[in-house]
Each structure stands twice: as structure tokens, then as C-alpha cells.
Specification:
single chain, alpha/beta, Rossmann fold, Hypothetical Protein Ta0175, Chain: A, domain 2, seven-stranded parallel sheet, alpha,alpha-trehalose-phosphate synthase (UDP-forming) activity
């Protein structure tokens, strides 16, 4: 066994997440009951991959492997406790976990010695020939021959024993048994007893019910087990048999739920785990707060929707390990960034009324999928920067695998004829995969990013694969008419092109206005000073380096602004592991240092750089202080920060100037009421900013009033509800053909 030690030592690591573990006996328990009950349990476990399945069986490993091969209703286990608790197996590669087996088999005198010693004195024992056995000896024994002499002889050998179903007599190492094996595995993986459910039907399962975990005694259990399992609120008893009893217990604990008529598919959940607790987004605006608001209590979809999201894991135990931060298109810089946090074992469920359906994703796959394919291949195309596309076969394989797993995950949660609302380019392959699996579903996808011109899209090496998948949508939504046109042109030759909708996303104006009014007032700044503000995450698509160059040109051309003009850039970094912006960050910080060194004088420097996230109230303070808000995106979705700036100013009776990129989605809605700028023209960036700085107070008041009048987008909740309705109305030929 020494050759397996290194694998076992490396393979058993602490789990790092909210733990749900089902430990179940096989014969009579998981395999018990009728086929319908087994099928329903299998589907429930497929809907909830966050539940770790552990087999605890009297079978040997080869018998379990044969069962998994021939019986499609058996859910795949993550761990196998075999040989009545003498063996522990990592089901990912069917290797024995020697570090645990050494403890469980300590003191075992050996198979041959036990068999020889008992055969001489107890001929009534019938050895189970043909049954593969490791670390145990198993016999058939009529109940009348279970005597004190026999059990004493076993104990004299330094062994323990179990007897079940009136015929199975197992001789085990003194430390072995299903209960001890579960205890050892749970200790190694840091599973809290309160997050484990054990299920059994016979007396060789009895030791599992003494661990302090949740338990279910199935309705077809042998009377001896029912009589000896303690009666307390942790043990669930039911008349249902086998698998149906397990499912009933899982439902009783609230660990599983039925399929839903509406499933939200987003690559991350609406909360993130950090600093020891779940956190909501700090801004009231953006897609995560919007969806949460839309599906809040009182919404027609509140009790019927499920949010499906990924959880990053870095634990070979197969249990989720944290929540990916991801990027958050359109949210303000108050949204914290950071790598996918690692939640400790036993972390509570996210405190949200909306049911969550988590898909565990290995850390390495997340890196290839999100850090690689999403940010280095697809993002440059979306931002109309095709020269930056970096496509690799391995990263694209991770993208394909993620989308395939996510599509399967959605399928298990969506009821027949249900609605699946996908979000963004992260899931572009899901429509094609899901359509082939579930032609009954209404499938829609909303793009929070701009959608590129077909000529740019086709520069992706995987353009045709993506185009084929997107053609399987019933409905596609966009912030702007130009993005919708690009999508329509790309799929113009599709047999049944998806319907499209233009639904510009607004902000929670009341929440921003209320917060702005609650902020402490600050003394008015010297009339001679001018503050220009940008709030944006680090991204070459936001053109931050171009901004610094424009400031340098402006200060060179207008020396009277030196000492008066300050540009404040609040620019939180991306999730660690994303390298697509490394060059941008280096160029930006070098340009800032050069400019500040060149023009700084008497305590003044032109650039005030904040490379960090800020709480949303502090962001609002910066909005209120700024004379000009500057957006220079090369491509953008809506850019909600521009809306936040205008609302904060208007709510407090202040005025300001908005310099807005023509490429931002908000430009289609504000039009010439904003000072539009061409981010591709260095001189236009300078001229538009100079114009904003020269506006008189009266001009700024009129400018702000004109922009406020154009803030007519529906509330975020109304926005989301209208999209769900649009997807459901877009009943395309996919569904009609399957009806």
C-alpha cells in the first residue's frame, strides 16, 4: 500500500465552504424503494451539486464500481466508505485513502488469521466466498448462532464485529466501522456534524447515528435499527422507503428544492464571501442589485425563481470553496474586487430571500475560463479591440467545459416549459447546449456589454461556434439599439433568428438621491479650483491612459489651469489572476507619475489616483465634490456611474458637467444633452474636457437639468420583470416544435 500513500496524503485536504454532506448506505437505503423514488432523488442531487455524496456500504470497492457502471440511477459519489468502514476511497480516481485506512485498520490481525481462527471453532459461520473483502471478514450467520462465545472469540482476536439483517456477520479491525470511518473523514475534511446527513436501514449503519449528525431511518429499516437509534430532533423518521426517504429528509432539512419556472443564469451569485461573512454589493445599482430587487418579496417571480451561479473550489474533496468575484459590468467602483474568496467550513447560506443553486467549479478551470477565455479572448472583441484577442486552445476548453456544466446545471433546475434568463458573454455557449437538452425551455440572454460589429465578432477564432449557439436563443436583449443591430446582422442568415429587445438599464434613483441628501455637507471649495472625476474599474476599454495624456495636453495648452485643475481617478483593480490589464496598469501608473512629477508645485499635483474600491457613500461624496464627471470608454454598456453622478448632483441642488464618450450606452439616451467626446480622438478628448471646465454656473445648472429630464429608464425591478416577460412571449419555433 505504500505506493498509494503520496496520493492519499495530497488528496485529503480541508474543505473550504458551506458544507452539505449526504452519507448513505447502499442496499436497502440508496438502492431501496421504487424506481420513481430513486429517479427523483438522483435528479434532486443533480440540481444540487453542492451536496457531497458519500457511500457507506458493506460492499467492497469492486462491487461498488460494478454498480456504478450498470445502474444509471445511482448518483455518483465523491467518497466511498466500503468494507463496512474498513476502506475509504477517493471516488475521483478510485484510489484508497491510506492515511485514513491506516487509522481504521490499526490492530487488524489479518484476513487469513481471523478466518483460520474462527473456522476451527465456529463451523456455523459461512464465509462469503466471491465477495471481495479488504480489512474485514464477512460471513453468513443464522441469528440463533450469534452467541457470546462467538463474539468473545472475535474480541480475543483484537477485532470488532457487526451483525445485521439477521444474517450478515462482519469481523472488523477494532477501530473500523461505518461510524468511525465517517468521523475520520469528516475530521480530515472539516465537515461540521450539523452539515452531515446519514441514512441507513440496517444495524451495521447504527454507528453512524451516534456521531451527532442529522440522520434518517428509512421506512424499510430492520426493526433493530429503528429501536436502537436514539429519538431526538436530529433523527428524521419516515414511512417512505429507501431513496424516497432520503429525499424527504433532504427536503426536511431545506437542502434541496423543486425545479423552478424561472431560472436566472449568471456566472456569480449576488453576494460574495469575504472577511468572514457574506457581503452584498455596496452600490444599489448594477446587475446584481437589480436582479435581487426584481426578484424580491412581493415580486410575481419572488417565490418561483432560482439564481444559478458558480462557486469556485480549490479543494479536491469536491466541495465548493468560495465565490468568484468576476467582473461587474456597469457597477460603480464601490463594488469590492478581489480574488475568489475562500469560505471556511460551515459558512452559512447566503442571507438572501432568493434561492441559490450553486455549481462547484475547480479553481484551475475558473482561471482558464474567466481569467483566460473571457478576459483575453472574448472581452477584446466586445470592446472592439480585436488586435488584443488572445485565444488559446486550453483556455477555450475550460470555457467550453464551464458552459457545458452550467447548461446541465440549469437544465436540472428548470421545470418543463420554464424560462431561463442568461446573462452576458460568459455563457455564450449555453444556449446551444441547453437547447439540445431541453427544447421545451424559453431561453433568453441579456448583454450588459456592448455587442460588437459582425466584422469584429468574426475575428474571434471561435466565432462560428459562438454564432451557432446564439442562434438557439429565443430572445436576446441589449442596452442600446446599435448593439441589437449588430446582433441581428450577425445572425441575419439564421433559420430562426432570435427576437431582440432594447432595454436600457437605469439606476435606483431614489436610493442614490436619498444617500446624497444624507451625506454631511462640506464647505464650498475655492471657486478657483476645478475637480474632474472618473469612477471606473481598471480596464483598457475605459481609456485611462488616454485620459492622463489629455490632461497633460490640456495643462500644456492652458497654463492657467496649473495649480487649479485636479483629476481624481477612482480605479479599483481587477480580480487577481486577470492579466489582460497588466500592461494598461503599468502604462497608467507610469503616465501618472510622469505627469505629476512634471507639473506638481506647492502642494498641488494634477492627478489624484485611487487604485482601490470605495464604499458607495464615499463614491457619492466624490460625485458631490466634482465639477466635471468624465467618461471616455472606447466601448461600454450603459455606464451607470454617469447616471449616479447626475442624480446625486440634482438631489442636492448642485450642478455639474458630464463629458460622455460617444461609445458609452448612455450616450444613445442622453444624446447631445451631455458633452459628447470621441475617445478615439486625442484632441477631441482635450477639447470636450476644456469645454466642460469653461462652463459658467448657469450653464452647468441648465446642463444638469437637461440630463435629469432624460433619466426616464424604468426602475431596476420593472426593467427585470419586463425582460422576463419578453423572454416568455418570444415563444420561438424551438418550443412550438416540441409541444
Amino acid at each position: 500500500m505504500a505506493e498509494r500513500a503520496s496520493h492519499a496524503d495530497a488528496g485529503v485536504q480541508p474543505a473550504h465552504t458551506n458544507v452539505k454532506v449526504l452519507v448513505t448506505d447502499l442496499d436497502g437505503t440508496l438502492l431501496g424503494g421504487d424506481e420513481d423514488g430513486r429517479r427523483r432523488l438522483r435528479r434532486a442531487l443533480e440540481r444540487h451539486p453542492e451536496i457531497t455524496v458519500v457511500f457507506a456500504t458493506g460492499r467492497g470497492l469492486s462491487s461498488v464500481q460494478a454498480l456504478l457502471h450498470r445502474d444509471q440511477l445511482v448518483p455518483p459519489p465523491r467518497w466511498i466508505i466500503a468494507d463496512v468502514g474498513a476502506s475509504v476511497v477517493d471516488a475521483t480516481d478510485m484510489s484508497h485513502v491510506d492515511v485514513l485506512e491506516a487509522q481504521l485498520r490499526a490492530g487488524w490481525p489479518g484476513h487469513d488469521r481471523v478466518r483460520a481462527a474462527l473456522a476451527r471453532r465456529f463451523p456455523q459461520l459461512t464465509y462469503q466466498d466471491g465477495v471481495a473483502q479488504e480489512g474485514r471478514c464477512s460471513y453468513y450467520l443464522p441469528p440463533q448462532h450469534l452467541t457470546g462465545h462467538l463474539t468473545a472469540a472475535v474480541e480475543d482476536l483484537g477485532c470488532s464485529w457487526t451483525y445485521s439483517d439477521g444474517r450478515y456477520f462482519d469481523v472488523l479491525p477494532p477501530q473500523a466501522g461505518k461510524g468511525p470511518a465517517v468521523r475520520q473523514l469528516a475530521r480530515k475534511l472539516q465537515w461540521p456534524t450539523t452539515r452531515i446527513l446519514v441514512a441507513g436501514d440496517s444495524l451495521n449503519d447504527l454507528s453512524m447515528f451516534g456521531l451527532g449528525t442529522h440522520g434518517v431511518v428509512v421506512g424499510n429499516a430492520e426493526p433493530g435499527l429503528s429501536a436502537q437509534v436514539p429519538t431526538n430532533d436530529r433523527v428524521y423518521r419516515t414511512e417512505l422507503h429507501g431513496a424516497a426517504a432520503i429525499l424527504s429528509a433532504l427536503e426536511h432539512l431545506g437542502w434541496v428544492r423543486d425545479s423552478a419556472p424561472v431560472v436566472i443564469g449568471y456566472h456569480r451569485p449576488p453576494l460574495h464571501w469575504t472577511r468572514g461573512q457574506w457581503h452584498r454589493p455596496m452600490s444599489p445599482n448594477g446587475i446584481l442589485p437589480t436582479l435581487t430587487s426584481a426578484l424580491a418579496d412581493g415580486s410575481p417571480h419572488a417565490s418561483t425563481a432560482i439564481w444559478a451561479a458558480a462557486l469556485v473550489q480549490d479543494d479536491p474533496a469536491g466541495v465548493p470553496g468560495g465565490v468568484p468575484a468576476g467582473e461587474s459590468v456597469g457597477e460603480s467602483a464601490s463594488v469590492p474586487t478581489g480574488d475568489p474568496p475562500h469560505a471556511p467550513a460551515g459558512v452559512p447560506e447566503p442571507p438572501t430571500h432568493l434561492p441559490m443553486a450553486f455549481l462547484p467549479v475547480p479553481t484551475r478551470r475558473w482561471a482558464g475560463y474567466f481569467h483566460g477565455a473571457c478576459k483575453e479572448a472574448l472581452w477584446p472583441a466586445l470592446m472592439s479591440q480585436p488586435h488584443l484577442i488572445r485565444h488559446t486552445t486550453s483556455q477555450w476548453a475550460d470555457y467550453e467545459a464551464f458552459n457545458e456544466d452550467f447548461a446541465r446545471h440549469l437544465s436540472t433546475h428548470a421545470e418543463h416549459g420554464g424560462t431561463v434568463w442568461l446573462h452576458d458573454y460568459n455563457l455564450w455557449l449555453v444556449p446551444g447546449i441547453l437547447r439540445s437538452q431541453r427544447p421545451d425551455l424559453h431561453i433568453g440572454l441579456f448583454h450588459h456589454t456592448p455587442f460588437p460589429h459582425p466584422d469584429i465578432f468574426r475575428q474571434l477564432p471561435v466565432a462560428e461556434q459562438l454564432r451557432s449557439s446564439l442562434a438557439q436563443l429565443d430572445w436576446a436583449g441589449f442596452h442600446t439599439a446599435s448593439s441589437a443591430r449588430h446582433f441581428q446582422d450577425l445572425l441575419a442568415d439564421a433559420t430562426h433568428p432570435p427576437r431582440t429587445g432594447v432595454h436600457p438599464l437605469g439606476i435606483d434613483r431614489q436610493a442614490v438621491a436619498t444617500l446624497a441628501l444624507s451625506r454631511p455637507s462640506h464647505p464650498a471649495c475655492d471657486d478657483d479650483t476645478l475637480l474632474v472625476l472618473s469612477v471606473e474599474r481598471l480596464d483598457y476599454a475605459k481609456a485611462p491612459v488616454q485620459k492622463i495624456r489629455a490632461i497633460a495636453t490640456l495643462l500644456e495648452a492652458r497654463p492657467e489651469l496649473r495649480g487649479r485643475l485636479r483629476f481624481r481617478l477612482i480605479c479599483p483593480p481587477p480580480e487577481p489572476g486577470i492579466h489582460a490589464y497588466d500592461t494598461t496598469r503599468a502604462e497608467l501608473e507610469d503616465a501618472i507619475d510622469t505627469l505629476n512629477a512634471r507639473f506638481a508645485a506647492r502642494g498641488w499635483s494634477p492627478i489624484d489616483y485611487h487604485p482601490c474600491s470605495l464604499p458607495f457613500p464615499e463614491v457619492v461624496d466624490h460625485y458631490l465634490a466634482a465639477d466635471v464627471f468624465w467618461v471616455t470608454s472606447l466601448a461600454d454598456g450603459m455606464n451607470l456611474t454617469a447616471q449616479e453622478y447626475i442624480v446625486a448632483k440634482a438631489a442636492t441642488g448642485r450642478s455639474g458637467a458630464l463629458v460622455l464618450s460617444r461609445e458609452a450606452g448612455a450616450a444613445e439616451h442622453f444624446g447631445t444633452a451631455a458633452l459628447l467626446t470621441d475617445p478615439h480622438s486625442p484632441q477631441d478628448l482635450v477639447d470636450a474636457l476644456s469645454q466642460a471646465l469653461d462652463m459658467t454656473p448657469a450653464q452647468r445648472e441648465a446642463h444638469t437639468a437637461g440630463l435629469v429630464a432624460l433619466l426616464t429608464t424604468p426602475s431596476p425591478a420593472a426593467w427585470a420583470r419586463s425582460i422576463i416577460a419578453g423572454i416568455q412571449r418570444a415563444r420561438g419555433p424551438h418550443q412550438e416544435a416540441s409541444g
